[in-house]
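ARCHIVE RECORD
Type: protein–small molecule complex
Small molecule: ISJ
Source of inputs: curated submission
Record status: active
Notes field left blank by submitter.
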Amino acid sequence: MKQPFKISAVSYLNTKPFLYGLFQSELDQVVDLSLDIPSECARKLIAGEVDLGLIPVAAIPQLETPHIISDFCIGTEGAVKTVCIYSACPIEEVTHLYLDYQSKTSVALTRYLITNYWKINPQFINALAGFEQKIGDKTAALIIGDRTIGLEGKYAYTYDLGEIWKKHTNLPFVFAAWVSNRQLPTSFLDKFTAALELGIQKRHQVAQLFQSSYLGFDVHQYYHRYIDYELTTEKRQALKLFLEYIAPKREVLVSK
Ligand SMILES: C=C(O[C@@H]1C=C(C(=O)O)C=C[C@H]1O)C(=O)O
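STRUCTURE (tokenized, with ligand):
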């Protein structure tokens, strides 16, 4: 039997439509899938432990020969709901800011917005597990993914980074994309992208499947209004701008 394609995908709720598509296709027979926190998806692809990953886009410049696969991503056209800075005081007064260890893109996005949008100078702290407990007084935290579910209204101030990026650039944003570090066979890629497309088309059903596990959080709305899965030309432009900022010396081909 041929070696399966090794894939690392994000273990959060936003990725379930993609997984649904993969399991509905015949591909589940030829892929070896692991679900990981985003920073680990990036590490595995950079280390060559997987052939393909749904990785934080901030890690793309660290790959030697990145290939962005498909016209799908984890993106947003504005507010995203699950990438936020939580704070007990207005952000202008924050002195310490914890950066989620599960993230790569939103950490870079936070640094970008702190400098270019808010123009403030808090001390950044690379967080370890359990950092959410440290929010209070003048200490804030960036939290991403499923751990943000249920935090709405818990802290006096919430800053949605998709929304702030949109305000600042008038562009959508891409958090994660399907990326390989070498050209993969077209026969596989065609099936893979068809599976992703199927999953996105059926995300209404996926939302129904998962809704009962996320009480108080509207999964359908999350999949249709907040997360935007299409890697459009405008999103590619936004991605280019963002990567040029975080890795000015490294040119990455993001257009098709
Ligand atoms: C919108 C999200 O995007 C995530 C944010 C990432 C990051 O900051 O590195 C990586 C993967 C995405 O799943 C989220 O998980 O809430």
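CURATOR ANNOTATION: The first strand starts at residue 5 and ends at 10.
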